[in-house]
Amino acid sequence: MIGLAVxxxxxxxxxxxLGARGIAGFSMEIARWLVIIFVILAIISFFMGAFNV
Length: 53
Hints:
Oligomer: single chain
Number of domains: 1
Helix content: over 70%
Number of helices: 2
Radius of gyration: 15 Å
């Protein structure tokens, strides 16, 4: 999931440089949500592993 977020971030940067600001903003929003979901799932996974006795 984090790889997809990085790919969308690179796409957003390339689109911004080429002048497609709408696509760049949309890609950045998707990348931001993917990073947020990744962090939440990583925290949940950490706590599930920490309490698994």
